[in-house]
Each structure stands twice: as structure tokens, then as C-alpha cells.
Amino acid sequence: MAQTTTPCRWALLGLSSIAQTFVDDILLPRDSSDPISHIVTSVSTTGGQERAHKWLAERKVPNSQDVAVFATFEEMLKSGDFDVIYISTPHPLHYPHALAALNHKRNVLLEKPATMNRPQLERLIQVSKEQGVVFMEAMWTRYLPATLFLQQHIMPQIGPIRRVFADLSVPIASKDMDLTSRLLDKEAGAGAWLDMGIYCLAWADVVLNPDNENKKIPKVVFADSIPYYTGKEDVDDINTVVISGKSESSGQSSAIAIVTTSLTLAGSNKSADRLAVKKVGPSVKIEAENAQVCIPFPLIRPQELHVEWYGSEHLDEKGDAKAEVIKLPVERGWGLWYQADVIAKAVRDRKSENDQKPGLAIGEEESLRVMQWLDDARELAGIKYDPASEAV
């Protein structure tokens, strides 16, 4: 019997640059055998219908003139005809927007970081379960082929993890940048830690908590930050964080993760696409008892795993270590559609079961661990935001 393709109908809150990439990705041509397809049916924007339809047309959204454009978010939540809402507003607005959507019994894909702190995230997870809907943080890197292959096939072979390095440093900030840019505006949650650190911490979590069964959650033991002065205020820039995993038997440190970020370091800021440049060093390095694994830049979109197995049998005729290069390319687009498929399948499956069940928070444990690390590192490094943006 031919497999039925289920369309997932999307609503958009926030016509951001990441929303552009997201929409471009989910609307890429798909094989007729794919179990999921995606369509955009609703948009909420304060910019008016003309701007919204122009944006949709630029994204080549099919039948863009038929997409319902709502002047207010509340109106879209009440009347919009959609399966999942994708929220990509500035960081401090994630919590109130997602909370409103969940309370309207809407399934939510929420851009990362999902919230400004762990208590806000805990509340969203609680409400999603109370309302019987699906909630998911848009940490898309977790669902890419290279990440899944590492977890399922490489991690079980390389032995206990001893050390992890993860860096995401991209020269985004510059003196001629508009101070109202989200990347420099503290009121919009600016700073390297929330924007970039979350990716590095996601990798630390993949490696230090591979099966979600680590009873002793690794702790942040050091964090420091060198700020970037915008001319108006400081935003965190060059950040270094150390996470220590403890042995359950001895209680001593058994694995260390070193995480670094910057929005001014690592090359020229003249590049049109800073995330497409080739870099010499790895973006992630995992050191284990049996092998080390290196992941080339950028760690947000891994497409290769370089595995160096230890032992004389893995040396070449000159006695040099041989690296096994495993290519696991993103199948199409930038790769945001993988996460869209994950939540779309969860929503489809819950519909087919047709019964009242508690809601589902996809990636709940991973997101909570990473958010705790974000909070702890901010406290140690003195990275602060308006307390109102962190209220629950």
C-alpha cells in the first residue's frame, strides 16, 4: 500500500531572518514517498498585509495570497487554521508568546534559546502537558544526520568520554553595525552566550549525556566573559565555560567540556556567509578512551565526522594516525526541515490516536539540561538581562 503524505500546516509569528531560512527549508521539493509535507497557512505580523504577502512571495510560498495574515498574535491564536506555530521573535518574547500559544492549545515549535532561563522553560513544558499539546525547542542541530549517526553508531564504540571542546566564534559584531540590531540590543537578548553558546552546550550534552541516563548531571564549574562595548552598553562576547561530569562511583571528575564563543573573534567579518567558510581547526573535538572525533566548522550544521581511532593497528606505514572521514551531508537546504518533520510527525501521530493524552515536550530533558548550564554560566560570568524579561 502506498504511504500517505500528511501535510503539516504552519503558522508563523515573527518574519525574522531565521524564519526566512525555516520557510525556505520546509517548502523545498520533497519525494512523493515522504510521510510529511509542509505548507504555510497563517502569519501574524504588525507590518500589515502588504508586507506579509511580499515576504511570503519572496519566499516563494505556494498560493501566498491565500495565506491568512493576522494583525495580532491573539487573533491568529483564536482563529488561525494551522497545526503548529513557529515562533521566532526576539529571545525575551519567546516565553510570553509560547505561553499564550500553549494556553490556546496550540502546538509550538519555539526558536532557541526557548526561554531566558530554566524556570520559564519548566513552565512552558508544564503547560504543554496540561493542555495536551506538543512543544519543542528548535534546536535543529540535534536532528541532523551527522548528529544522529554520532549518537547511534560512533559514541557506543569510542569508550568513556574524557574531554570535549566546542567552539562557535563568528565575527558578527562590528563598530558600524546598527545598535538597534538584535545582535547588539540587550533588550532583545543580545550576546554570544544565548545566541551561540546554546549550540556549543547542545554538543556538550550530546556527548556527556548520550542516553539521557546520566544520574549525575555535569555541572558548570567555571565561566568568564569578556564583553563587547557597543557604544551604548556591554554585551557578552568572548565567553569560556567549563563543565565537569562526575563519576557515579568515585564522585570525582570523569569528563570535562570546554565551551567557547565569540561574536567578534575568528576571522574577517567581510564574508557574505560567515557560516559557509572553511576553517582549519575543528569546531567540536571529542576525546574518548578509544578514539577522538572532530567535527568541522560550523558545529551548528555538521556534515562530516573525522574519527581517529587509537592503537597501532590504526597507524599508516609512516606511523601517523589515520582519520576515518564519515560524510553525512544535509540532504537538502540548510537543514531546518529535519526538526519540522520531527514535530509534524508527533502532531500527526497524536491526531491518529484520537484520545486525550498529556501533552508532549520533545527533547525535554536535553533542553532543560542545556538551559540550566546557560543559567549557571551566566551567573558565574556576570551576564545579566532585565529582570522583567526573566519573570515567570
Automatic annotation (TrEMBL):
Keywords: Oxidoreductase. It catalyses: D-xylose + NADP(+) = D-xylono-1,5-lactone + NADPH + H(+). This is D-xylose 1-dehydrogenase (NADP(+), D-xylono-1,5-lactone-forming). InterPro entries: Gfo/Idh/MocA-like_OxRdtase_N, Gfo/Idh/MocA_domain, NAD(P)-bd_dom_sf. One of its GO terms (molecular function) is nucleotide binding. Residues 10-137 form the Gfo/Idh/MocA-like oxidoreductase N-terminal domain. It comes from the Eukaryota. Its EC number is 1.1.1.179. Belongs to the Gfo/Idh/MocA family. It is an enzyme of class 1 (oxidoreductase). Gene3D superfamilies: Dihydrodipicolinate Reductase, domain 2, NAD(P)-binding Rossmann-like Domain.
